[in-house]
Sequence to fold (89 residues):
Amino acid sequence: MRVKNVGILIVTLFVGVLIGGALGQLLGLLLPSEHIVTKALVNPLITYDAGPWDLNLIILLITFGFKIKFNFFSILGIVGAWYYHKYSY
Fold:
């Protein structure tokens, strides 16, 4: 059995989160906002904010920050990506 790289696992999980989040957002666009499926599966379960951080360079001000929102489909994307990584090649 071939040894798998940890970097490839991280990229695979990141792609799984992106695909799962995109599917969740697409489903959220198709369903009304007060629908029970939207409330249970599409709305974020966990939200993480980091920042904003300002870097003042006298003539230039740069602001850094990010927000991560996990919904049910993002977690399904992680599980699917892990399964793909474990049983592929």
Notes: Residues 6-30 form the longest helix (25 residues).
